[in-house]
Amino acid sequence: xxxxxxxxxxxxxxxxxxxxxxxxxxxxxxGQETSIVSSFAGTTTDPVEKPMELLPLGPVIxxxxxxxxxxxxxxxxxxxxxxxVIKRIEVALLVTTAGVxxxxxxxxxxxxxxxDTPVIIIFNKSDIKAPSTQELELLNKKNDRVITTSxxxxxxxxxxxxxxxxxxPDDYLSNSAILGDLVSPGGFAILVVPIxxxxxxxxxxxxxxxxxxxxLDSDATAIxxxxxxxxxxxxxxxxxxDIVVTDSQAFLKVAADTPEHIPMTSFSILxxxxxxxxxxxxxxxxxxxxxxANDKIMIAExxxxxxxxxxxxxxxxxxxxxxxxxxxxxxxxWRGHDWPENLKEYKLIIHCGGCMWNKREMLxxxxxxxxxxxPITNYGLAIAYxxxxxxxxxxxxxxxxxxxxxxx
Length: 408
What we know:
Layout: E1 10-16, H1 22-30, E2 48-54, E3 58-64, H2 72-86, E4 91-97, H3 103-114, E5 119-124, H4 133-142, E6 146-148, H5 157-167, E7 188-192, H6 206-217, E8 221-225, H7 230-235, E9 243-246, H8 251-257, E10 264-266, H9 267-274, H10 278-286, E11 296-301, H11 312-325, E12 330-335, E13 348-351, H12 359-371, E14 376-378, H13 379-386, H14 390-394, H15 398-407
Parallel strand pairs: 1-3, 1-4, 4-5, 5-6, 7-8, 7-9, 9-10, 11-12, 11-13, 13-14
Antiparallel strand pairs: 2-3
């Protein structure tokens, strides 16, 4: 419970063919026997994740993947798992050995470039055979970071750590705010926290905890209450809060109990900005206006928990959508990292806030939806739109508010 959440860690993926020493590189970087190492090709099957601290970046996750050249029916499934990892990592380590560079490596490098993912090419096992000058010159033309290592002798491992720090996205060297930038230092926010039945007993859900910490880091104060106590909480204060933030499920009551002059939004909308692209997702919510009976939409959730009675994604949002449209809607549910290849059959994608994921994976999904010309939004924005409080929920965000005014 004391560890940095997975979704806030820099994700570093290790890729390459079987038996080039990917797992050995991971073990050398972490200083632990994180992955099983064997001389037999294909030892690593499913992706292996290892959280650690990498200064000055802080908390990171290394993801060791199966060989991209795997064979057979099971090998094809392992390659698909590797391809899923590509979409959610922020830094790529492409491992090869001297004399080995062909279509597999070219395809990986091309995909990293397409996704604008910074990549380091690593010639491993240099204690056995070092790359030639010609090889190094050729790959330096393809990619500006090429290094030589030996996971066995640890040669080049310190240089690899330094290169990772150099190419890490700026977001991980300067913390972005969840809502700290919306509250002045010394100010305060009221966080409305209904007791979520799906949260572990005795704990709050992750977006609420992260928002509290973000306010404290911003020298602001968090006042916490349930939706039934919001009105009395505001009345008992001497000054107005900078903002009221609620769980989207309590949007209507919180909107009714919060005076109009006080900014109000939801945790989910905050996370549309923090983990995704608020402008694109706000635009996606406006596509609800064009939905008709029997249209097909997707509701996607990053968590794989078992839905409970009156679950937000499987019960409440479908109910509110059907009421808004005035007819039945066909809904597909997708959970975890699974993602359909054909998005064009959907009129709209509604995604959860993605609190358990890193920003790269959410942005990857938004980009994929945009390429398929399918609007994408998230739970909080969709709920606000269907309940008629979309304008108010967007007002704390000037760019999104202006975009809405121009498009509506």
